[in-house]
Amino acid sequence: MQRVLRAATALLVGWLVVMAGTGTAFAAGGNGPAATADHTKFKELDKDFQSGPEVTRACLGCHTEASTQVMHTQHWTWEFVNPKSKELVGKRHVVNNYCTSAVSNLHACTSCHIGYAGLTDKGGLSTDPERVDCLVCHDTTGSYRKPSGLNGNVFAKDVEMPPGSGNVIRGTNLKRIAQNVGKTSRQTCGSCHFFGGGGDGVKQGEMDSSLEEPDKNLDVHMNADGLNFTCATCHRTEGHAVPGSRYAPTAVDKDAAQMRGMTGERNPATCQSCHGQKPHKGEQAARLDNHSRVLACQTCHVPAMARGGVSTMLSWDWSTAGKRDEKGKPLSIRDDLGNPIYKGHKGTATFGDNVRPDYIWFNGDVEYTLPTEKIESTERPIYINRFLGSADDGRSKIWPIKTHVGKQPYDPVNKTLAVTQLAGANDTAYWTNLNWERAIAAGMKTAGLPFSGQVGFIETVSQWPVNHMVAPKEKTVGCSECHAKDGRLDKVEGIYIPGRDNIQWLDNAMKVLVALTLLGVLAHGVLRIFTSKKH
Question: What are phi and psi of 20, to 5 degrees?
Fold first, then answer.
């Protein structure tokens, strides 16, 4: 039965690839048939909308259950219950080592929330169905933007913000966008996910704007002139719930290839859900398939991050912030590629291109350091999130990850990571002038946490799984890059890797055998010389 399913899956995937490649009867991405409705003909959308919720009200006239579905997803709640620790984690509860916290900077952070003031200033959730933002995911015009500082809201007309500042936020043509909605795309998903952490490619090293229209060398699946996968091709969505989360990633998938369209508990965004457990072809197939028992597919097939011309951030040191230029404004320094390596109101940062990932054992479990937890020692970096796994737990594979190093404020008296307010109504006081005491006091108050009034800085580490920017098979990681001293897997413990490792007693035994052999040859030669003289 498994063979039949595999054969049927291969035929179906092959047909989808052919149809997606030719563009026949398929929308961009090869995800399904072209739209059956022309929204420009809907009279409900033929009006000049004055607000986002007004558009959503019109959408709900037909898509009656959409808001209810969205409000039960992680995209809306920004929450996740860790199945191992049972801790409630998410953007509203954890601290990161970028801008440190979302809960205290919601006016800015919610420019990537799928709601109009969907998250309140206290981090609570709106239950008003008209607060769901349909356009942020379904815009096809490329013109929809949610300005920072407006708590996820959009304006239909030009607005000066703040009043009297001279800074004008251009109004959005909501009618045009509403009449041109469609399926999600790399652009709509990327409008948030490509720009996490404060800039293009900053947070995740293998997700940036270069994936909007990538070629085959950058990503074989999303290749705009080839398979043209959208995000939803792999992250197949049901009831607006998008599978595949960094809070609970699937590190090991031991099942066979899954028939597209099947539902269930399995994550459809794993490599194995399409390629199965024996994906390789040719003379080396058996050897390579044997490697995949230990290595995640990404370990070989994503040789480097930030390969599309957009740099990714590798470290952020907040402790150096505060320097100003000759005009008294926050100092700004950029490298030759235009990356902001120093900003007076942010501190020092480092960036990289074509960055080799780090490699660790990972079983899917993630351990978080929450702002309520005590930090007993500052001698070693604190892991904001730590990927767990080992060579002998039977649940792990060797994974590529991005490691981001930070140095951020904490409370040395209460021994907790600081929740800081760096954006919002008091940008001038908190962000530009960077008054740490005020910024932390306001942030901790929002989070409902105590603050001693003292500020220290602590080294931190965050880890990110590497999944995207899948290279063509000709450009995968070469054998010698791992099977060598000081190779890619040099720091991975618990496994014997030929070329990297050696067994000392066996090496010593071989040396003895070689020495004995040499002595035997010499002895034989000497005997031949003496015996030849007798004759």
Answer: -65, -40
Residue range 118-161, pLDDT digits in tens:
776 666 788 899 999 999 999 999 999 998 878 889 989 988 87
What is the SS3 assignment for 61?
coil
pLDDT at 5 over 80: no
Residues 124-147 as b/e (b if ≥16 CB within 10 A, e otherwise) read ebbeebbbbbbbbbbbbeeebebb
Q: Average pLDDT of 179-200?
A: 94
Residue 394 CB partners (closer than 8 Å, separation 6+): none
* Contacts by 152-157, CB closer than 8 A, 24 or more apart: 152/110, 152/111, 152/113, 152/115, 152/116, 152/117, 152/118, 152/119, 153/51, 153/52, 153/116, 153/117, 154/51, 154/52, 154/116, 156/48, 156/49, 156/50, 156/51, 157/50
Whole-angstrom distance, CA of residue 427 vs CA of residue 440? 13
pLDDT band at 29 (very low <50, low <70, confident <90, very high): very low
Q: Are 146 and 157 in contact, with CB atoms under 8 Å apart?
A: no
Alpha helices in 27-173 (DSSP H): 52-60, 66-70, 74-77, 106-109, 135-138
SS3 call for 493: coil
The vertex-320 CA angle with 314 and 325, nearest 5°, equals 110
Q: What is the largest CA-CA distance in the chain?
A: 118
Helix (H) or strand (E) holding 361: strand 358-362
Please check the confidence at residue 425 and state whether its pLDDT lies above 70.
no
Bridge-based pairing state of the strands 168-169 and 347-352: unpaired
The tokens for 516 are: 């004995």
Categorize the per-residue pLDDT at 329 as very low, low, confident or very high, splitting at 50, 70 and 90: confident
Mean pLDDT, the chain, rounded, equals: 87
Count of CB atoms within 10 A of residue 158's CB?
Answer: 9
Name the region of 502 (left: φ>0; alpha: ψ -120 to 50; beta: rest): beta
Q: Write down the pLDDT at residue 161.
A: 75
Q: Can you name the residues that pair with 350 across neighbouring β-strands? A: 315
